[in-house]
């Protein structure tokens, strides 16, 4: 009796569709096909059908399907690692395209370190008037947000631009100084930053001051460090505009050398097409010029 021939290949391997890969990433991110369907605005059967089509195009099972769970196979994990950068690239493309479509109602996003962002907050009413009728979004972070892809509109940075950034424009708008402050003239304890002293000028400065003193705590967030020092925990490294303005503090080590840093206002060239952004940039430059004495310390 003749037996029907059996095709050893279960799948016909073809180039996978990006739309199917995008759905695959959504299923992994949301943990189930139902949740991915809700997030993408599609039906669960459609999601299941697209995942099946992706598996057939790749010739692989991407998920182990249980009654109440959906787990990646070893192959599925490998495909996830390969596809994840594509998903990130797609989101960058979307942000970049949006950044080139001027939206008169979009907020003006300013990114700066926490020290600078806290200073800006004291003058937020003045900056708000420059931005009207839109709002300002403050993004305090030490991470260098990507202006080209539209993560922020204005960056206040302490260093000049690296080479190869022709689409960015920068202007020096002033300086900001840092020093060590405490509630007593001769503090016995120090609040140190968590950074390795070999990797940060500020951390190295504090480490030198801390020799012979107790490290009471390590606090990276400047506003929290300020509050701890004000409570009497120990001496802390603070911006001069903040330390000098607080009558509870004594400046126990003056700013010097690299601790007086240049501040640059950085924008993408296309920002000149957004009047709200340029008005805020000009207001920032005016603010830093007017506040230089306080920013660099007495």
From TrEMBL:
<keyword id="KW-0804">Transcription</keyword>
<protein>
    <submittedName>
        <fullName>DNA-binding transcriptional regulator, LysR family</fullName>
    </submittedName>
</protein>
<dbReference type="InterPro" id="IPR058163">
    <property type="entry name" value="LysR-type_TF_proteobact-type"/>
</dbReference>
<dbReference type="Pfam" id="PF03466">
    <property type="entry name" value="LysR_substrate"/>
</dbReference>
<dbReference type="InterPro" id="IPR036390">
    <property type="entry name" value="WH_DNA-bd_sf"/>
</dbReference>
<dbReference type="InterPro" id="IPR000847">
    <property type="entry name" value="LysR_HTH_N"/>
</dbReference>
<comment type="similarity">
    <text>Belongs to the LysR transcriptional regulatory family.</text>
</comment>
<dbReference type="GO" id="GO:0006351">
    <property type="term" value="P:DNA-templated transcription"/>
</dbReference>
<feature type="domain" description="HTH lysR-type">
    <location>
        <begin position="16"/>
        <end position="73"/>
    </location>
</feature>
<dbReference type="GO" id="GO:0043565">
    <property type="term" value="F:sequence-specific DNA binding"/>
</dbReference>
<dbReference type="GO" id="GO:0003700">
    <property type="term" value="F:DNA-binding transcription factor activity"/>
</dbReference>
<dbReference type="Pfam" id="PF00126">
    <property type="entry name" value="HTH_1"/>
</dbReference>
<keyword id="KW-0238">DNA-binding</keyword>
<dbReference type="InterPro" id="IPR005119">
    <property type="entry name" value="LysR_subst-bd"/>
</dbReference>
<dbReference type="InterPro" id="IPR036388">
    <property type="entry name" value="WH-like_DNA-bd_sf"/>
</dbReference>
<keyword id="KW-0805">Transcription regulation</keyword>
């Amino acid at each position: 009796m003749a037996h029907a021939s059996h095709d050893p290949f279960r799948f016909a391997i073809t180039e996978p569709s990006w739309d199917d890969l995008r759905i695959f990433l959504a299923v992994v991110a949301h943990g189930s096909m139902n949740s991915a369907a809700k997030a993408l605005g599609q039906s669960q059967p459609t999601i299941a059908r697209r995942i099946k089509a992706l598996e057939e195009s790749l010739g692989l099972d991407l998920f182990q399907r249980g009654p109440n769970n959906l787990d990646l196979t070893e192959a599925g994990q490998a495909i996830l690692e390969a596809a994840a950068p594509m998903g990130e690239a797609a989101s960058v493309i979307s942000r970049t395209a949006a950044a080139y479509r001027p939206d008169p109602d979009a907020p003006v996003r300013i990114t700066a370190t926490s020290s600078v962002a806290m200073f800006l907050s004291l003058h937020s009413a003045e900056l708000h008037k420059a931005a009207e009728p839109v709002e300002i979004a403050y993004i305090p972070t030490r991470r260098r947000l990507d202006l080209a892809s539209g993560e922020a509109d204005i960056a206040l940075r302490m260093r000049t631009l690296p080479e190869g950034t022709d689409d960015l424009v920068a202007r020096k708008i002033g300086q900001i100084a840092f020093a060590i402050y405490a509630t007593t003239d001769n503090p016995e304890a120090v609040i140190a930053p968590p950074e390795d002293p070999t990797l940060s000028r500020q951390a190295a400065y504090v480490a030198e001051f801390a020799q012979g003193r107790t490290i009471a705590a390590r606090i990276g967030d400047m506003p929290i460090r300020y509050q701890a020092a004000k409570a009497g925990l120990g001496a802390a490294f603070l911006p001069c505009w903040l330390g000098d303005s607080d009558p509870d503090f004594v400046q126990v080590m003056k700013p010097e050398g690299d601790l007086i840093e240049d501040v640059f206002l950085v924008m993408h060239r296309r920002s000149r097409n957004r009047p709200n952004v340029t008005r805020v940039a000009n207001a920032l430059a005016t603010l830093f010029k007017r506040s230089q004495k306080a920013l660099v310390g007495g």
